[in-house]
């Protein structure tokens, strides 16, 4: 039987970017000890107090169908959080609860794009972005953010790619680069969106992981609330990756239609998960800072390690749980470097090419193992890079 072109074409006929990760997992399954610095999975699990709240809710009977838009209490809680942090008026009618940030990304593009429409996204990008756009029948078009610009997307480059487009997807703090978009960058993006009548889809799942500067949601900029769909999630801020609880914040009319979409697709999020999210958000910034602290600490450790060598350069590591390392001095592509590092030292990092053309010659390191293991792996990576750059054999 024939499968649809939409489902068979999600990756555009190429790799989905996860080859190195899957190779590392195969090695682990074979009993090989691998230091995994690949995906954004916390090395600490969901806080016991959140699990206790989830357990109380489930045992209390909140295990049936929950309201499709989300419980009133969670929608109100998310709205209050967003309004307090952005200054932009937000009510439950601006909020849809989704099964994680990925479902929110898919829903947001469903709202913005018709089949055949062009949807812009910034390269480097999280690996699912192009497939998410193809999944709604739209055509992905990359906007290059250059390493030479600190991976800040330039509004003039966006403008040059905007002909025929209906939406733009951005992500700050950024995965994979760790860059936080500055006010000037975001104001320039906002102007392009207004001039070109684009929906702006803003992936803000790392908004609690800021090491330098400040997070600015473009929805808070003048004239942007009516054309911005913000994606949020409990996954990164509260180490609840497996709980699959996220949201979209946007104009009431868009949210109303997205509720209809959810009725015909996900049919909501389990009520006991939503109750746990209400509890977690109620702990305020203290818990968020506790969850973020290991990544801030490891980022500082990485600064000291990388400052003592010249084979690897660190891109601006201003936020999120990743380091983007420039390894072009080795003469290797990111893919070749990552493959050789895995095979020779059993350290798994993601090739920059997994995240687009702009990240070629880089590797992404997730700061998601204990400090001592992280330091050891990063020092080994630097030594390996130095050997490659000098042309000397490993040893």
From TrEMBL:
Family to which the UniProt record says this protein belongs: Belongs to the class-I pyridoxal-phosphate-dependent aminotransferase family.
Top-tier EC class: transferase
Protein name (Swiss-Prot/TrEMBL): aspartate transaminase
EC number(s) on file: 2.6.1.1
SUPFAM superfamilies, alphabetized: PLP-dependent transferases
Key words, A-Z: Aminotransferase, Pyridoxal phosphate, Transferase
Cofactor(s) required, per the database record: pyridoxal 5'-phosphate
Signal peptide residues on this chain, from the entry's feature table: none
Residues annotated as domain Aminotransferase class I/classII large: 34-372
UniProt record, GO biological process: amino acid metabolic process
GO MF annotations in UniProt: L-aspartate:2-oxoglutarate aminotransferase activity; pyridoxal phosphate binding
Naturally occurring in which organism (per UniProt): Ruegeria pomeroyi
Catalysed reaction, written as an equation: L-aspartate + 2-oxoglutarate = oxaloacetate + L-glutamate
Source organism, top-level taxon: Bacteria
Keyword Transferase tagged: yes
């Amino acid at each position: 039987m024939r499968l649809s072109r939409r489902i068979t074409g999600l990756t555009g006929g190429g790799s989905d970017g996860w080859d190195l990760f899957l190779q590392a997992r195969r090695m682990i399954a074979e009993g090989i000890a691998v230091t995994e610095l690949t995906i954004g999975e916390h090395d600490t699990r969901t806080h016991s107090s959140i699990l206790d709240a989830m357990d109380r809710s489930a045992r209390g009977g909140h295990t049936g169908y929950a309201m499709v838009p989300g419980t009133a209490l969670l929608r109100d809680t998310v709205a209050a959080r967003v309004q307090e942090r952005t200054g932009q008026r937000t009510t439950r009618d601006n909020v849809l609860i989704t099964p994680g940030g990925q479902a929110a990304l898919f829903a947001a593009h469903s709202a913005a794009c018709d089949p055949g429409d062009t949807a812009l996204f910034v390269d480097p990008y999280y690996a699912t972005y192009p497939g998410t756009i193809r999944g709604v029948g739209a055509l992905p078009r990359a906007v290059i953010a250059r390493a030479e610009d600190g991976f800040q997307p330039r509004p003039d480059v966006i403008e040059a790619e905007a002909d025929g487009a209906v939406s733009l997807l951005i992500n700050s703090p950024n995965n994979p680069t760790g860059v936080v978009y500055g006010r000037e960058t975001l104001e320039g993006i906002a102007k392009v969106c207004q001039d070109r009548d684009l929906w702006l889809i803003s992936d803000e799942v790392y908004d609690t992981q800021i090491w330098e500067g400040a997070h600015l949601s473009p929805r808070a900029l003048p004239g942007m609330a009516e054309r911005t769909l913000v994606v949020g999630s409990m996954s990164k801020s509260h180490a609840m990756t497996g709980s699959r609880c996220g949201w979209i914040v946007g104009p009431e009319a868009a949210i109303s239609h997205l509720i209809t979409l959810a009725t015909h697709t996900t049919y909501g999020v389990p009520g006991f998960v939503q109750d746990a999210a209400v509890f977690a958000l109620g702990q305020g910034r203290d818990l968020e800072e506790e969850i973020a602290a290991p990544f801030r600490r490891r980022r500082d450790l990485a600064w000291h390690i990388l400052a003592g060598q010249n084979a690897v350069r660190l891109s601006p590591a201003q936020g999120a749980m990743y380091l983007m390392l420039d390894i072009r001095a080795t003469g290797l592509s990111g893919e070749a470097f990552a493959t050789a590092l895995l095979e020779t030292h059993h350290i798994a990092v993601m090739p920059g090419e997994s995240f687009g053309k702009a990240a070629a010659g880089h590797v992404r390191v997730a700061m998601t193992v204990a400090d001592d293991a992280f330091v050891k792996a990063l020092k080994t990576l630097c030594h390996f890079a130095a050997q490659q750059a000098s042309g000397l054999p490993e040893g």
